[in-house]
Each structure stands twice: as C-alpha cells, then as structure tokens.
Amino acid sequence: MNNSVGNTARLIGAGLRALLVLTVVCGILYPLAVTGIAQALFNDKANGSEIKDTNGQVVGSSLIGQTYHLPKQNPDDPEEAAKPDLKWFQPRPSNGLGSNSVNTQYALILSGATNRSADNGAVNGLCFKDAEEGTLCAQVINARETVIADNSTASHTVWPEDVPADAVTSSGSGLDPNISPEYAKLQVHRVAERNKLDIEQVEKLVADHSTGRTLGFMGEPRVNVLELNIALKALSKS
Q: Which of 43, 112, 131, 238 could be joined to 138 by an S-S link, Cβ 3.0–4.6 Å?
C-alpha cells in the first residue's frame, strides 16, 4: 500500500515538474525568442505590415484591401448601398462570398470566394447581358458596365475590351489589397479629372507604385491601392 502511494506521488511530482518546465520553455521562452527574432529581423511584417500616411498615422495594412466610399447619407440605414468615392483609385470587387455575405466591405470576420464556376450563368460558354441574376456572368457584366461608366470622362472613353479581369472579379480571399497595373492605368483619367491633376502626373504615380513579379517569376505585376492612394493624397495637396 505504501509503495503504491509512493509511486503515485512520484509520478504526480514528475508530471508537475514536466508541466512546469514545458510551460516555461514553450509558453514563455519560445514565444519571447520568436517575438524577439521577428521584431529584430522582420519588424514591419511582425507588426502587421502596417502602412502609415504622410502624417505618420497608421491607415491600414499592405496585406488587406479596403474600400474608398463616400459617407452614407443615412448612416443608420443598413440597406443603403455605399457608393465609391471616385476621386480615389478603387480596389477590385470585395464580395468574395457573394453580395449577401458578410464580406462585402473587406470585412475581416470571414474571407473566401464565391466558388462559382467560370461558366456560371453562361450560354455556350459565353456571357450575355440577360444572364440570370446572381450568377457569375451577371455579376461580371454588371461590374464591367459600372467600371466603364465610372472611368469614362469627357475626354476619354473606356471600352469593354479595356476592362481587365481583376476590375470585375474578387480575389480568392476577397481581401486582395492589390490591383493590376492595367486596372490602375484604366482609372488614371478619372482620378486626374476628379483631383484636378495632369494626366501625366497620375500616370507617373501609377508607374512609380507598380511592382513586378516576386523574384521575377512568381505572381503577377501589381499595384497596392492603399499605398497608391496615400501618394495621390500627397500629390493632390502639393
């Protein structure tokens, strides 16, 4: 009986010592070491890839897209649709989970894509204006018409063939912070007109903020919309 109690006590003691050691090593020392290394070597990324404006205020993350909308006329009305503020460069559509999802405003609570096939709503592989409402074809056609209407100016007409795919489709996560250089260039005339800037100035802004493929072969060329709009704000005030 005494041996049994003694063995049990020793086992409990060994378990408690192991728990204490593992708690200190895995719960304190390891996290501190990883945090210290991350802060020393990758400070920006470790802190969320924050982007600051010209005043040094954090305005977002380089990894998460955001919208640029006009204030709602009735903030208390959840049914009122937000309208884009067209003086800014606009991101790609954010409704990765559909227009009735929680992810229509780049909300971080959930991300994902529609999971609709490329020919959803198509007839013989082609999308037409009378595509069934709610299908991918209908969403793309409606988005394309909006892009054309928003970006055509008195001196510049946007044609359907000018609209790139990322202007009318969301990313797989619905949170993509980047657009293609083609989509950024498509918006140049509208942005220049709304901000009373020369087209050449805005074109240079896009060129300066265009990034090539990672390591020269991974991914696609891109423009971070938040960084571009921060530069646009600074240019507009200069």
A: 131
